[in-house]
Amino acid sequence: MAGSPRRTAGRRLQLPLLCLLLQGATAILFAVFVRYNHETDAALWHWHNHSNADNEFYFRYPSFQDVHTMIFVGFGFLMVFLQRYGFSSVGFTFLSAAFALQWSTLVQGFFHSFHRGHIHVGVESLLRVKDAGGSMTIHAFGAYFGLVLSRVLYRPQLEKSKHRQGSVYHSDLFAMIGTIFLWIFWPSFNSAPTTLGDGQHRSALNTYYSLTASTLSTFALSALVGRDGRLDMVHIQNAALAGGVVVGTSAEMMLTPFGALVAGFLAGTVSTLGYKFFTPTLESKLKVQDTCGVHNLHGMPGVLGALLGVLVAGLATHEAYGDGLESVFPLLAKGQRSATSQAMHQLFGLFVTLIFASVGGSLGGLLLRLPFLDAPPDSQCYEDQVYWEVPREHEDLAQGPLRAEELETRA
Amino acid sequence: MAGSPRRTAGRRLQLPLLCLLLQGATAILFAVFVRYNHETDAALWHWHNHSNADNEFYFRYPSFQDVHTMIFVGFGFLMVFLQRYGFSSVGFTFLSAAFALQWSTLVQGFFHSFHRGHIHVGVESLLRVKDAGGSMTIHAFGAYFGLVLSRVLYRPQLEKSKHRQGSVYHSDLFAMIGTIFLWIFWPSFNSAPTTLGDGQHRSALNTYYSLTASTLSTFALSALVGRDGRLDMVHIQNAALAGGVVVGTSAEMMLTPFGALVAGFLAGTVSTLGYKFFTPTLESKLKVQDTCGVHNLHGMPGVLGALLGVLVAGLATHEAYGDGLESVFPLLAKGQRSATSQAMHQLFGLFVTLIFASVGGSLGGLLLRLPFLDAPPDSQCYEDQVYWEVPREHEDLAQGPLRAEELETRA
Amino acid sequence: MAGSPRRTAGRRLQLPLLCLLLQGATAILFAVFVRYNHETDAALWHWHNHSNADNEFYFRYPSFQDVHTMIFVGFGFLMVFLQRYGFSSVGFTFLSAAFALQWSTLVQGFFHSFHRGHIHVGVESLLRVKDAGGSMTIHAFGAYFGLVLSRVLYRPQLEKSKHRQGSVYHSDLFAMIGTIFLWIFWPSFNSAPTTLGDGQHRSALNTYYSLTASTLSTFALSALVGRDGRLDMVHIQNAALAGGVVVGTSAEMMLTPFGALVAGFLAGTVSTLGYKFFTPTLESKLKVQDTCGVHNLHGMPGVLGALLGVLVAGLATHEAYGDGLESVFPLLAKGQRSATSQAMHQLFGLFVTLIFASVGGSLGGLLLRLPFLDAPPDSQCYEDQVYWEVPREHEDLAQGPLRAEELETRA
């Protein structure tokens, strides 16, 4: 058919161009018009004195339930994309999160420490590094810990399980449940540990802007690099969330709405390109098997987010933060540290995080290789049946429903 | 089998009779006993002074997160009912909502304008017409805009894609995720733009009542008109929500709980009958292809809701509203407009909405027919594969799980 | 293969041992270190005066929306595990909950009575028995009502529908949506009817602890009793929630965090063992067909919870409750009843509940056996098609997606 090549070329460019043009135009308008203390925003974000407004609509303060929804539903279902590993994904997330809730009580109050481990306490408290949403201490740490661990556990024969490594149609839809609940509650997650009031509002708002931009750039890039301009569900499920990761350090700072858009756009781009081009290399060259693409969603955007934190901290001034400087950078407010010094501390925080992650991942990997720990063989990876009773699909369902006459006859 | 015809007749009437009798009896009791300022309600809905109560349970103020859940999860999954269009439904809802969030900041504050476009600002602000939940400016406008657009884009050969136009078993279950989250958060949506406090409580309460009644009438009517008395998932997924649409204009007014029940019951009835009898005619006679039945969920209930607003506004008195008149009908409170005049303005608002929708839909349709815009051929509609990489279903899943012995042998 | 038996034995013990060791160690640390009025907790749970804190994170007060999510999403999807009964599970839950919302307005305010019927009002109000989360009046009552009813409706030929009684892979994943939303909002449910402030915080916190422990014990026991150490989805979907049931009576009391862990652990254990060993006996010996295992999730944990309430009420002292005694046990605070007397009342409440449930279940069963009520034949149980139009699965989906060339050719 004559029109086909042109149609294919058109399809490849149509969605990317639309997304990029719209995002570009919007970003310019943001740069020119949108400010935190624009009068509409001020009215909108003003929390305590709402009785005078005739039209109020809230960002809800982050709560246990919001973050639990994010973790149990979001993380649990995101990994259900694997066609034969859904029970394990949702089940083991459930088990781990339940245990983490108990353990967090012991460590540091009920929930405060749920989503951040000792490394966080170490880096943030001791060095006075800011990292509220955890670009460094959650995402970069977790990703590189896991990738180093995966390197130690490298399975050269894993292609024996290759046929189970992809998704099926409905498993991708389950995974989208995870993606969407993560997207909705990521602003709550990033703002939960920040200062009540202005700090939480700014964190949430920056996270929203960044997530919208990473969603747009992910769709644009996914179509651009896809076969015949087709979108890839793996990108949408994951890279669209990179905007939440990349502002994990700087969301509570005066990043500006325009800055949040740019950061999110870059994160979605880097993450999508990572899935397309870097993940295959990671396995073939570096012998790191990264099934879920944590390097693309958590690793690179986490490091980017840490560097963004260095930049935004280095630009902090008394003018830009006003009275809020005390809560965001207490040492700056007291004059005990300069902005440049804060930036250097942030950079050092990233360095320490990566060291801890590498050492921890290596030790963890060696521990898991202990012979008495039972691991599934290479041919049985990504297979629920190793750990779960899996129902035998019933022939009736495959055959389709009975016809009405059959129903009556059987009755 | 002798009992079969009687059984079929019995089944056809059993559920409808049960629903109708229960709803009738409940509605009568509502008319006689339930008032907004019944002492139990007053205690329940009293918001600010809760410290004396020993038993409090809240309607939560509408928040970003609630409405995001409604839009991303609700709208996203509702359309997944199509067997081969799930990726597009959830994916493109995700993309559009993310962009709408950015754009809304530019238009009018962060979220206030997210769910209402310029037409709303035009109608509500300039004419001083009330339409908080958007029966007119969201539902009727959106539906008739889309239906006119669909008329312009009419595809006579669309039956080539007929086999993909229905659902499969699991796609209907995914769609129910959408329905249920929409149902839960519709009261938040309708009450979000109304006055904080009493206004939001009344809006939410009326929406709840209306939704419960449309759910009951949908089940009753669906079984009544179904083959052998069987329920139809399309009705349950959509018409059950018509109660939220029909009170979009009047939910903040003194509709009374009984009025909300009646409105919801009618909306569910009209919507279900529309799916059964009107949608086929719409395509065959009027050449409008309405795959999701927007005319039944948004069009007719939206117009009904606008007319209900005319009626309830026309009945407004200082006695019924008390001090609340100022917030619901400010011009009436100031004596600048009579109730009848307000009613006429409401009717004129509907008229303007429908004109705008028709003109806008026509222009939009002509725009989309521009030759350089690439549309899928008639045989490839409702098909994710045009835009998405779709995984090949793996034979292992169809064959059912391995037996334990096979697992051990392969290991 | 030589290693197989050892591998199987290792797998059977690995997960249970891990769970039991971690839970044991954590429980000991809880017993030694964790107190309600530990300074971190006090800061965390302090509700009204949050302006001084620099790091706040909330348990959100229970709301309509939370409990609706629990009921519509949670209950609705939990029962979707049946391979051919998903439409009925989610649909009829939807219908019943919508009607219950209307009815609750008539009975006792808008939502207060939604999740508790007359029996609750009878037992709690008349006898002054505490049962906020409904171990007795919701769970034990509902379970034994239903089990007695199921005994009266016993179908000896039900094995004709046996092939439809299990799950398929994706129906189990849908059910996990139900489980997880129930888990997240169970603390809101148990705390909704308790006293605002400290009472709600304590109820929620105890419910969280109990749920985490029942989740851990369910995974441990499920693997321990499973074939080859495999986990069973039925256990995870249900028994993991038994921790919410077992503290339904005592969550608002001074159960202590350690007490909540122990109670939850026991409930998960009893529930899992019930699914494995008791449900088959229940059918074969007692002629009670308990498809969803309500005896394991609601019956036994409900009775256990009532007995736990007897114990904790009997141990109540002025020292332990301080000023809170007035809200939890008003008659004790006024000196009109001793702790022992309160415990006896609690025990009598359980007795009355079980009598009411048995009589009510018998009458309900006899009512449903009336000949004009149409029930599906034994061969058509667990089959949506009796009540619903069920889509015929399309051959295209089974065949997998088209290849790119086919797409172009067809176009």
Automatic annotation (TrEMBL), chains A, B, C:
Its main localization is membrane
Q: Name one GO biological process term.
A: ammonium homeostasis
Short name of one Pfam family: Ammonium_transp
Which key words tag this protein in UniProt? Ammonia transport, Cell membrane, Glycoprotein, Membrane, Transmembrane, Transmembrane helix, Transport
Q: Name one GO cellular component term.
A: basolateral plasma membrane
Going by the entry's taxonomy, the superkingdom of the source organism is recorded as Eukaryota
Localisation per UniProt entry: Basolateral cell membrane
Q: Where is the Ammonium transporter AmtB-like domain?
A: 27-114, 125-370
Transmembrane stretches, start-end: 15-36, 67-85, 92-114, 134-154, 166-186, 206-225, 258-278, 298-317, 347-368
The keyword Cytoplasm is annotated on this UniProt entry: no
The record lists the catalysed reaction(s) as: methylamine(out) = methylamine(in); NH4(+)(in) = NH4(+)(out); CO2(out) = CO2(in)
Membrane topology category: Multi-pass membrane protein
Q: Which GO terms describe its molecular function?
A: ammonium channel activity
> What does this chain do?
Ammonium transporter involved in the maintenance of acid-base homeostasis. Transports ammonium and its related derivative methylammonium across the basolateral plasma membrane of epithelial cells likely contributing to renal transepithelial ammonia transport and ammonia metabolism. May transport either NH4(+) or NH3 ammonia species predominantly mediating an electrogenic NH4(+) transport. May act as a CO2 channel providing for renal acid secretion.
How does this polypeptide assemble, per the annotation? Interacts (via C-terminus) with ANK2 and ANK3; required for targeting to the basolateral membrane.
- Which family does the similarity line name? Belongs to the ammonium transporter (TC 2.A.49) family. Rh subfamily.
What is the protein name for this chain? Answer: Ammonium transporter Rh type B
